[in-house]
Design a protein that fits this description.
The complex is a heterodimer.
Chain A: H1 3-27, H2 42-65, H3 78-104, H4 108-133
Helix pairs in contact in A: 1-2, 2-3, 3-4
Chain B: H1 3-31, H2 42-65, H3 77-98, H4 103-124
Helix pairs in contact in B: 1-2, 1-3, 2-3, 3-4
Classes of the chains: A mainly alpha, B mainly alpha.
């Protein structure tokens, strides 16, 4: 398993644990032990799971197992793949902080945080599609 | 990678690109509101990423790597049917709420998605087997 795949999959597992912890807090609100502001984490819970865990796990396995781009460059552009990893995770982490903060405290700084996180995640998704497209082939 | 897997996976990649673009727009809109109508894209965002990307990629990779019968993948027709039903269903169920189409079209979209899953199961069920087995047992 190549190093970048290990990074993708291990990071995905951390996000899975984080998503389940956030979900636990959301479920426990009714018991009265979790503060009301925790509700602001609802969109983050879903995206930690679907982007941080599901999409990231898929990205790591695709990098590893899809047909080779070429003998010299089996994964396509390694730089683009590194950019996918860093943009996806920087974007998602920034979102996990900025989106609930914007709900609770809508100042311009958090607005820019959310906007930049959107741009980073979108860049990661598009770079993944572009870099994977030519590896979807017969052999 | 067989031809049908290439179709499934490329369609999944297109849905990922469109779904992430809509998601980026919606998140950006939370930060700097553009127009309230942008929220109408939300059901399409969900449909494209849950079914058009994740489920479709799984079907494409499953068709490619599940155990084969000697050199054949068995009856491929239900899997091709699943490809067309899934994509029709995803776009119909995603666009119906956005365009305020009659609710029957959203239901039809979901039915097409369900039929796609059933068709894919008809193809894949016998391939979920130990190496060398016929695929008739459980």
């Amino acid at each position: 398993m190549p190093p970048l795949t290990r990074w993708f999959i291990k990071t995905a597992m951390v996000y899975l644990a984080a998503a389940l912890l956030v979900g636990l807090g959301l479920a426990a609100r009714g018991l009265g032990y979790v503060p009301a502001w925790w509700t602001a984490l609802s969109p983050v819970y879903f995206h930690l799971f679907m982007v941080g865990w599901v999409a990231q796990l898929i990205f790591g396995v695709v990098y590893w197992m899809f047909p080779k781009y070429s003998q010299a460059h089996p994964h396509g552009s390694e730089r683009a793949w590194l950019a996918v990893y860093w943009c996806l995770n920087a974007g998602l982490l920034l979102r996990a902080v900025a989106e609930p903060m914007l709900t609770l405290w809508p100042v311009v700084g958090w607005r820019w945080g959310v906007a930049v996180s959107a741009l980073l995640q979108w860049t990661a998704g598009l770079l993944f599609v572009v870099n994977t497209w030519s590896r979807v082939k017969e052999r | 990678m067989p031809r049908l897997s290439r179709w499934f996976i490329r369609a999944a990649l297109v849905n990922l690109a469109v779904g992430f673009t809509i998601g980026g727009l919606l998140l950006g809109h939370k930060a700097f509101p553009v127009h309230p109508l942008l929220w109408r894209l939300f059901p399409l965002h969900i449909e494209l990423l849950l079914f058009g990307w994740t489920l479709q990629l799984i079907m494409g990779v499953g068709f490619w790597i599940f155990p084969r019968f000697w050199r054949s993948r068995g009856n491929e027709r239900p899997a091709w049917l699943a490809f067309f039903l899934l994509n029709a269903g995803v776009w119909l169920a995603g666009l119906s709420p956005m365009l305020s189409l009659p609710p029957v079209l959203l239901t039809t979209g979901r039915l097409l998605e369900l039929a796609a899953v059933a068709a894919f199961a008809v193809h894949a069920w016998p391939r979920i087997k130990p190496p060398g087995a016929s695929g008739r047992g459980f």
